Amino acid sequence: MGIILSRLRRLLGRSSSAETAVPAQQQQPSAKSAESVESATTASKPSPTLSPAAKSPIHIAIVGSGIGGLSLAVGCLRNNVSFTIYESALQYSVIGAGVGLGPNALRAMALISPELRALYDTISSGNLSQDKLHVAMEAMYAEPGFGEKRGWTPQPFGAPCYERTSAHRADLLNILTSQVPKNAVQFNKRVTNIKQFPNEGRVELSFADGTTATATAVIGCDGVKGASRAVVLGPAGFPDEIAPVFAGKYAYRSIVPMAKAQEVLGAEYAGDAKCFNGPDVNVMTYPISSGTECNIVACKFTDKPWTHPLWTHRVTEEEVRADFADVDDRLVALIACAEPVQWALHHHIQTSVYYHGLVCLLGDSAHATTPHQASGAGMSIEDALILSHVLGAVEDWRELPAAFAAYDEVRRPRAQKIVRTSQELGAMYACQDPQYGDNMGKIVKNLNERFLWIWEHDLEADMATVRSRFQEARKGV
């Protein structure tokens, strides 16, 4: 019953947010809904198709079909920007873990597409407790007893502007792909080279299958290890920034049935989002899949380098338990539900520019971050909003560098601050910050303040700024 009431409250309470005003040039017929809700929402609608050119003066190659690339594609559709998505996999990804979106990300989604925002409400999950709508998480000690010996009880952090919402990544990708025309996507296209012809207004992409493609510009949405990053930062004079940096931690990830989580952890500690903190550890648990599943991210911090050839490393169950030796047995048992695989966490702590010539970066390829502020996916959606908005104003390919420069000016300072402050918060969670130590009261006070600049950001002002900067720069083109 709690799950149903939570879903109804969000749908009713957010009905106005899905109607968020969108600039006039974005108003176009929406595409069909996701397959998971098709029968209830758009059973009579045909599949979306990409119009031949829509009189677009440019054609964009979007490399990668993750959250950022797909959000950009939806934004391009609504701004009459022609595009093709090139995805290295054989099909859209159907795997993944939980994704948390803050109010800033949800506003960005609504500004990109009100229908997409409404669809998100059909797949999202909040806290199961009815009185915790505005609670991001509850802070706990990870130690045995969860801090009871200290007299500690779960303490919430959040804000009135915040509504707890998260989703399974596969569900989010499903609603995004439902909005993208099938004829706008090419699969099994792993990029091996990107060559610019800036004086001709074209970029040539080469793929592992031996084929090539040409576009006016390339938007690299190919993730933290994507090839597009080198194409931008190398020629721009920042080769030392190309490679992602190990963030000093690895994670164990899992999704378990909520009933199992409540059985292992206890009903009072599972069902609502929790943040368990202790020396060199941080464990996040929160509901997804309409509250039927629990997403778990258990981070272990280390001062040693990551020396394994891959970013995933299988270990024994004994090694998992050793990583969390000083953690409550109930939480260790929940972590043990995961495959004993360490996922090395990397980020782009420094990125001096997001574009070079006719190639531009978006999402993790630009600013991969650690998960501590739950802002990685949200930043990708914000990127997509701002970039698609300014691309919609381009009237000639020669204006593209000016558009990319305006996007870089608006997005890079905010996104890179996310990367830095997420790393700082990780240290606080792991009791490594000498200013806070293991004083959970001081940590919670900080948590109730530190997210506001992220959540309350004025995206409409960013849209106006990027358009203004572009209009100023294009005068010299």
UniProtKB/TrEMBL annotation:
Residues 16-45 have a biased composition (Low complexity). The keyword Flavoprotein applies. Residues 16-53 are annotated as: Disordered. It comes from Sporothrix bragantina. Residues 60-421 form the FAD-binding domain. It comes from the Eukaryota. This is FAD-binding domain-containing protein. The lineage of its organism: Eukaryota, Fungi, Dikarya, Ascomycota, Pezizomycotina. Gene3D superfamilies: FAD/NAD(P)-binding domain (3.50.50.60). Keywords: FAD, Flavoprotein, Oxidoreductase. Belongs to the paxM FAD-dependent monooxygenase family.
